[in-house]
Amino acid sequence: MKMPSLVIIATICCALLDAQELPVSQEQLQPRHHAQATVHDQSICLRFNSPEWSAGVRILPPPQQTTWDFSQARFLAVDVENLSPDHQLRLTMHLASGSRRSNAATQNQDHTTDTPIAARRFRSCYSGIGLNPGEKRTLRLELPHTAIYEHPDSYGRRSLDSNHINAIDFEMQWPFEPPRDGLVYCRLSALRLEGQADHEAQIASEHYLPFVDAYGQYRHAYWPEKIRHDAQLPAAHAAELAELHDAPASWDQYGGWLAGPRLESTGAFRTAKYHDRWYFVSPAGTLFWSLGIDVLRSYTDATNASKNPEWFTTPLPDNGILPFTHWNLQKKYGRDDYADEFYAVLLRRLRSWGINTIGNWGAKELMASGTMPYTLSLGDFTKGITRLPKHRLYDVFAADFAATMGNLLRDRAAADPLVKKSLDDPMCIGYFIDNELPFNKLSEALLQAAPDQPARQAFIRQLQDSYPSVQALNQAWGSDFTTWDKVAAIRASIANNAFRADFRSHARAYADRYFAVCRQAIKAAAPHRLYLGCRFIGFRQADYIWDAAARHCDVLSVNAYSNSVANVSQQDLRDKPLLLGEFHFGTYDRGMFSPGLCPVVSQNERATSYIRLVQGALAHPNFVGAHYFQFRDQPLTGRHDGEGYQIGFVDVCDTPYPEMTTAARQVGSNMYHYREARTLKNNME
Length: 685
Known about the structure:
The protein is of the alpha/beta class. Helix content is 28%, strand content 18%.
């Protein structure tokens, strides 16, 4: 297969030959949140202890300038050196143009150099990097010029007014770490513009539509693996099959550590600490670290083209749905019914790529094969149960919560043969219940509940147990309620320590009941299976949420999108094993309009970022695995909720990204020795 990395390397090498340094003086720096930023020999030494969004440094244009003009360059680049001797660094570089104060009346103007900054629409973009201790690499951001990429009244890549860049920021995205000395300690050098913007790539508006070809790809760009005719699909498939490897030699039949220690064999997956590090333990008793991919399915997210048929070269069927990947797979395998062969090949792919786990939302056909460990979701949010107002949160004090959720696995097994098989399937690691519940909205949801809502009634019962009368409560809260019914009707928090303590106590009871009932759902039907938690949105959860989860979950699970997870607080995790349920990296270099939640500059950088993130998880004593979201790029024009990220191991035509598969193979082949080494180093071998 032709390697696109060679094209990217050549492009970046050419860019380096045409670089324009951007001098930076001390007066241009705006350190934020007690950051220290000093200029010496055109390098910036940056150090800060706070993980907050406001921490870092902003670089302003030189004196006598209000903006920079980056309109003729292709990249903004800076060399970043991690000066920490023992901690991974994660850093993002952000560009901004326009003003947040711009109003709706000016947002669609054709901005010229005479338009005041305050009247231009605020836009921003960013790119990130993760670095091991002492490592130095280049952080690049491809400039999304409005002059090239903006197409009025049509869908496309988000652009930036590169003629009027007003700030360059360095910070950490999605902060989660606790404050500590030298949390970020790095040197930024050779801030520069690279390459020439390809203004000839601009597509005239009259020629832009349609912009999606018959394969679901962007029509107006070229890349090495792009499919242009049907015969390329089976040819690429045959070439890939010839290059697939066996599973790494360091694995046993489960993907566990073949040459590692043997613990007790129980016939089911469990967790254990070995050398002060958490692991899964396979049914055979080998140590198992879970490298997985989510959404391993033949095809997903068919494109609904009914609202914008003019975007597509393909004539719309009556239902307006364009299942591009399904059509591509039919051509690839040469028949309509390709599913069995697809999944057989997918299992070969996963072993070749160094992947040992079927992550969340995997296909039933894949899990039923009995050849690879898997995690199983019992639902992202169970409908039909009493819920709190306005938010995707259950009322755990309602009778139907315990009746339904407490029997969830039993009922799912009765309705689904795959779930029934999982009860006794040694390849089943365990179960997730729910996904990304907004626990940070719990207090708001409880206060919005009606007086007769079970959660509100539970709060009143708790208060009546604590206070002998309403008068006693008033004395503690500094309030003036006349009856318990008036207390039950409260809609806003009270600025009083006793009120806050009582409300936290109620929230703790809520969290404990939620996780206890979910645990019961699994253990009542399959006591030997693991409860893998609810896949938190990020690591910033209230203490009472961590406490309850750690008390009832066998494994905590978190979805987090960042360039490193190495600095996750061990204190938060309460000495429990942790599974990273989602992470990803994406870029723009394959005709997609969005790089996802962790943008990087190229496929090579995606691969390096994958390695660095998993290295950080391997070095952390609590992590027992990391699952990548997701197997395939999302549709160019977005799935049902608008997400259209270039984040996959394969594209819409089922063509693998070789940089990603090579990186995953390197990690999978060496992860057990790397985890035991306990040292962050660039080379995993």
